[in-house]
Amino acid sequence: YRKAIRLYGSYLMEMAKVVGSSQPADAQRQAMLDLDNYLFHSVKKIECTYVKENLLETRNNLLYPELTRLFKQLLSVKTISALRLQALQSDRKGYDDIDFFRDLYKGLFNGFDPQSAVSYEQMDIQLICLEAWLDIMQEATEHNSIKKRLTNELHSLHDRLEELSTTHSQREVRDMYILLLRRMEQKNGRTDRITYKFWVIFAMIYE
């Protein structure tokens, strides 16, 4: 089981590496679609009885560090820079940073649809994505156009999540997005890396 999870994580990383690579635009677009199918909404593709029975701590402890590396790959200055360069070289006909963020939001955040159901696992992945994004912003010491692009996109994400924190049909999703907003608004310092399940337990204790 451990080997299978590690192989799964490696497979996802190979998908991520296609984005911003020299491969054709269609291949990069397909890579994001594959990440949607096999990660963001993996329950629709790979869930089975055995996976359900092993879906808790062991699996998450093995997989979630891999997902942190995956999002740091996708959102890295190198990847975003390559995507922007592709846009310039192909006169906007290639797969560019606009396409990437659109596909990321469409998959991981369900296109910001307030009626679209979000699983606990998907909420965890959203949190991992945000944590990786914030890490990249802290580590990017040069104030160049790429960091500005990532910053502006982060602000845009903040606004969309702020709206969903009051309009989403699931209470737990609204609560989760309030958590994400607070995390994004922290200018200094860090919080421990946690998962949504912790906040569910916390809320139950103090409710």
Fold and architecture overview:
This protein has ten helices and no strands. It has helices at residues 2-18, 25-40, 49-53, 57-74, 77-89, 97-108, 120-139, 145-167, 171-185, 196-206. Mean pLDDT is 84; it is low at 188-194 and 201-207. Helix content is 72%, strand content 0%. The N and C termini lie far apart (37 Å).
Order of helices and strands: HHHHHHHHHH
How many individual β-strands?
Answer: 0
Structural class: mainly alpha
Helix content: over 70%
- Distance N to C terminus: 37 Å
- Strand coverage percent: under 5%
Task: Please state the CA-atom Rg, rounded to the nearest Å.
Answer: 17 Å
Global mean pLDDT: 84
Low-confidence stretches: 188-194, 201-207
Principal-axes geometry comes out as globular
The major beta sheet can be summarized as:
none
Give the number of helices.
10
Summarize the structure.
With 207 residues, the protein is mostly helical.
Structural features:
disordered C terminus; globular; mainly alpha; 207 residues
Summarize the topology.
Blueprint (H helix, E strand, L loop, with lengths): L1 H17 L6 H16 L8 H5 L3 H18 L2 H13 L7 H12 L11 H20 L5 H23 L3 H15 L10 H11 L1
Helix pairs in contact: 1-2, 1-4, 2-6, 4-7, 7-9, 8-9
